[in-house]
Amino acid sequence: MPVTLRWGGEIDGWLVPVQFNTAVAASLAILVALLSLRQIGALPGTREGYYLVPVLLASFAFVLLVMLFARIEYNRYLFPSSLGLTVLWLFLLQSVTVRYRVPRFAILPAGRASELTTVPGVSWVQLEQPELPTSRLSGIVVDLDADLSEEWERFIANCALSGVRVFHFKQVHEALTGRVEIERLSQNTLGSINPHALYLKAKHAIDWLAALFALLVAMPVLFVLGVWIRIDSPGPVLFRQTRIGFRGQPFTVYKFRTMTAETNGRDRESAVTKADDPRITRLGKWLRRSRIDEVPQLINVLKGEMSWIGPRPEAEALSQWYEKELPFYRYRHIVRPGISGWAQINQGHVHKVDDVLEKLHYDFYYIKNFSPWLDALILLRTIRTILTGFGAR
Question: Which domain holds residue 20?
Fold first, then answer.
């Protein structure tokens, strides 16, 4: 369309190599963006419309970088106009299909399946008898651990045979809430939540390259912040603390100091940051709210101790406490800890045992669904978190 608008409808007149290269590149960028939006939109708590522009920008920027590095000539009018028209077209498409995008599930009246009706953003239909409603359904939800009558078992079999999707309620609960329940090991075997080994290695390499590039670019700003911290309050620029990381190994984490210098965080009491903590300095409040205090952890990423995305590492004293109180807590160390994580963007900063158990549910979901798509969603939501200051203390 942008080619036709600019150069007319005569194919022989506008299919020159530069324009052809750009049209192919724009098409590839759109394809990558659509596939990414489909994967991200399937994750809990997401609406494709919220991530439409960031994903398209990232996809077009990636393709543009490839063309620049490969020295492929492109048209400066065609490429951005394709991006603009794609954004407009997808927004119109989503506004037309919005009412069909709300999932609608029928629930069988047995076991714990009815607990799902409290989950928002879904249209729930409670079945009273083994008959499907005439309205559109995304599937039926059943507690397969419950004792079902022969009539309901026959109904489930008939639904599956007729093409209606049947889900176990725990599967739907995980998909909608982003949490994995961990009451009993028999229900969540360790083998079912093993992270993908190949992506684990690929992610480590990507993390290292991205951290090196980010540190080189941000070095002047980091130097200015270091001077500012020294002027704001006496003490070192960096805060160091022993935390538990990949495979349960302790390591020293680096952050910009946001508290008074006498704070060490070695014992359980001092390791906990409370709301309106008096130890936080004036500059520290802004650094914490903007998450800029986390930037020195890129050093930990370069050392292979952390990742950009992963479960947040806890102070050694807190980690030892949680391991005594919570089942399977130590298993969260099967992946590298991250500067940002799935639990952090969903829950914010917590330290009480009950809240940490909730965080563990999010951590297990991240490990079970370990993928570039989930990491991309966490990255996008982290940007929103930085802008809003959600969960900061």
Answer: 2-100
